[in-house]
Design brief:
Elements: H1 2-9, H2 17-24, E1 29-32, E2 38-41, H3 43-48, H4 53-56, H5 61-64, H6 70-81, E3 85-91, E4 101-108, E5 115-121, H7 124-135, H8 137-169, H9 175-195, E6 207-209, H10 211-224, E7 231-235, E8 243-245, H11 247-264, E9 271-278, E10 283-284, E11 293-294, E12 297-303, H12 331-341, E13 345-351, E14 354-361
Parallel strand pairs: 7-9
Antiparallel strand pairs: 1-2, 1-5, 3-4, 4-5, 6-8, 9-12, 10-11, 12-14, 13-14
The structure holds adenosine-5'-triphosphate and magnesium ion (MG).
The site of magnesium ion has 4 residues, from helix 11.
């Protein structure tokens, strides 16, 4: 394996050291000979191609790469030109290995005609990231909000009208539900009016708000719709001072977070816990604000669902990042924007069976609002 040794460790390297080094690296590495035959694989490559070293060494690269893969052409280029190439996001999906994409580095090995192939697999989030770049996220957000606003307002007016008709015929005991439909329709309408200005700083109607009233409304809606059948628990600090905020926007924030929690939970064993607490020590500089200010109001939403995939976690507040078939990936983007407009911060930590969204908000100072 002298060629690998030379290429990985430099000319002075000892010949027997290289395979050990390559074997330790978590990056799939193959050496491909002049005729395309595979002459070396490290364990990471065995894993990636879902084949043993013994199997792979009997094959050529063309046998294991997807049909028509650019990988083969790249190897040929390096063999003829003798210079290395890097190609991003190469599709290596096969029926055996499933969907896989990797950044590929191919370099000439010391032995003439041989090349070293390094495959850096791309995570889901990185791929989404690239898609985002291509789509021009910012443009889509403003374009989309305009379309949404237009398309939602009409049916919404219909829903509101129908709820009023229902209100007259349902028994007294059910009036609460029709009122809920009407109030929620009004809230959506108000939000849509504002979402049309998603690109610009939201015009927040800030006043001192009891965050527990916000959470009570979220809970009421959740229990009658998307979180039906899940266990919702509350641990509140009843002495919490009011937050300086916009009620409808804050309802929207916690509605989105609780909806995501409900989506992640198993239907029978799902549990969502809401907590509030006063943490006077928390001082943070919110993005865009120069001075550190105090954010002592803490609201958390915890669920025991499947958790956020680790490679997605840094991106969940970006627009269009979603793992749901029917998701828009806009919920948390709006959450981040609204909390940012309040001067607060939102963060997420997640592992399977324990995902926590933590929102920190400023207190309404005396005389404000
Ligand atoms: N509590 C959670 N548990 C597990 N994954 C979560 C949780 N909250 C968010 N996520 C992940 O973050 C992604 C982004 O969430 P976001 O609310 O922005 O979009 P969405 O729910 O997919 O679609 P939308 O809210 O626009 O209908 C989700 O698709 C999901 O993969
Ligand atoms: Mg969502």
């Amino acid at each position: 394996m002298g060629t690998v040794s030379n290429a990985l460790l430099g000319p002075a390297a000892n010949d027997t050291g290289a395979p050990e080094l390559a074997a330790l690296l978590p990056v799939p590495i193959l050496v491909v000979g002049r005729e395309g035959q595979i002459t070396y694989v490290n364990p990471a490559a065995e894993q990636m191609f879902a084949s043993s070293e013994g199997q792979l060494l009997k094959h050529t690269l063309a046998d294991v790469a997807p049909f028509g893969s650019p990988l083969l052409e790249l190897v040929r280029q390096v063999q003829t030109r003798g210079a290395s190439v890097v190609e991003h996001d190469v599709d290596l999906s096969t029926p055996k290995t499933g969907e896989r994409f990797a950044d590929v580095t191919i370099a000439p090995a010391a032995e003439a005609g041989s090349v070293i192939v390094l495959l850096q697999e791309r995570g889901l989030a990185q791929r989404l990231d690239r898609q985002l770049l291509h789509r021009g996220a910012a443009r889509s957000v403003s374009g989309m909000s305009a379309v949404l606003a237009h398309e939602i307002k009409n049916p919404l007016a219909g829903i509101r009208g129908a709820s009023q008709l229902l209100e007259e015929v349902v028994p007294e005991s059910e009036r609460g539900l029709t009122a809920l439909i009407r109030d929620e329709a009004d809230r959506i309408r108000a939000l849509i009016d504002r979402m049309e200005s998603f690109g610009s700083p939201a015009a927040l109607a800030k006043e001192p708000i009891n965050i527990h009233e916000v959470l009570a409304r979220v809970r009421q809606v959740a229990e009658t719709s998307f979180a039906r059948g899940l266990r919702l628990t509350e641990i509140y600090d009843p002495s919490l001072p009011p937050v300086l905020g916009d009620r409808d926007h804050l309802i929207q924030v916690f509605m989105n977070i609780v909806k995501n929690a409900a989506d992640a939970c198993a239907p029978e064993a799902g549990e969502i816990a809401l907590t509030t607490a006063f943490k006077p020590g928390v001082r943070l500089a919110a993005p865009g604000a120069a001075a550190r200010h105090s954010l002592p109001l803490e609201v958390t939403v915890r669920d025991n669902g499947k958790g956020v995939p680790a490679d997605l976690l840094p991106y969940i507040f970006d627009p269009f990042v979603t793992t749901k078939a029917s998701g828009a990936g806009l919920g948390l983007a709006l959450v981040a924007k609204i909390i940012g407009d309040h001067g607060g911060v939102v963060e997420c930590e997640s592992q399977p069976r324990r995902t926590v969204f933590r929102v920190l908000l400023p207190v309404a100072a005396k005389g404000e609002g």
